[in-house]
């Protein structure tokens, strides 16, 4: 690769980062639908030509932000099993769970997106990506044959994302290490029974 090509590539990367940061900064101040491309480029200190050299629209820019986050999310999700042939869930050490670190490291971005009208898009994109890799990359040889694999994936991912988004909504009340530990405890907890509380007719 020539020096000119390297410089061009670095320039493209820098402009994309600046445009992504500009959109997120504006989204922390106003609704996505109210933001114009002119505002984005002015905030990023670029011109419209630079914007259209990288993106077709502000929706395209938003998709790039979400795609970038989703790619990082998948990398963190794969961390506990990508280098092993057999993934022993019951022996999973809490420190190998990297997904909470990903969300914590990008806390400002997720906080902005959580408060915006694009939240459903973010959740759907991440859910679909996680569902795809759990179905394609994780095989359970001892799984009960009566359990539908797709339904198992949907159940597990909704539980995981529900826990994560609750954590974000709490403004990251707990540390990533605490969330790692709690996730492992939740995965391994298999109560055989639960005591019911009898309510009186006056309650």
Automatic annotation (TrEMBL):
Pfam families in the record: TetR_C_8 (PF14278), TetR_N (PF00440)
DNA-binding region(s), residue ranges: 36-55
Gene3D superfamilies cross-referenced by the UniProt entry: Tetracycline Repressor, domain 2
InterPro entries hit by this protein: Homeodomain-like_sf (IPR009057), HTH-type_Tx_Regulator (IPR050624), HTH_TetR (IPR001647), TetR_C_Firmicutes (IPR039532)
Sequence ranges assigned to domain HTH tetR-type in this UniProt record: 13-73
Record's protein name: HTH tetR-type domain-containing protein
Domain of life from the UniProt record: Bacteria
Keywords from the named record: DNA-binding
């Amino acid at each position: 690769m020539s020096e000119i090509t390297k410089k061009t590539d670095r320039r493209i990367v820098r402009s994309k980062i600046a445009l992504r940061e500009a959109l997120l900064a504006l989204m922390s101040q106003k609704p996505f639908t109210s933001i114009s491309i002119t505002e984005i480029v002015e905030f990023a200190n670029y011109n419209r030509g630079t914007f259209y050299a990288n993106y077709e629209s502000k929706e395209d820019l938003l998709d790039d932000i979400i795609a970038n986050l989703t790619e990082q999310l998948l990398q963190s999700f794969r961390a506990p099993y990508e280098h092993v042939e057999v993934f022993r869930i019951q022996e999973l050490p809490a420190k190998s769970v990297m997904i909470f670190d990903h969300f914590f490291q990008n806390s400002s971005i997720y906080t902005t997106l959580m408060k915006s009208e694009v939240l459903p898009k973010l959740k759907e994109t991440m859910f679909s990506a996680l569902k795809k890799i759990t179905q394609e990359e994780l095989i359970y040889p001892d799984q009960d044959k009566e359990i539908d694999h797709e339904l198992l994936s949907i159940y597990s991912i909704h539980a995981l994302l529900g826990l994560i988004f609750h954590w974000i909504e709490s403004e990251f009340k707990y540390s990533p290490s605490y969330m790692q530990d709690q996730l492992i405890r939740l995965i391994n907890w298999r109560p055989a029974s639960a005591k019911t509380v009898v309510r009186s007719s006056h309650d």
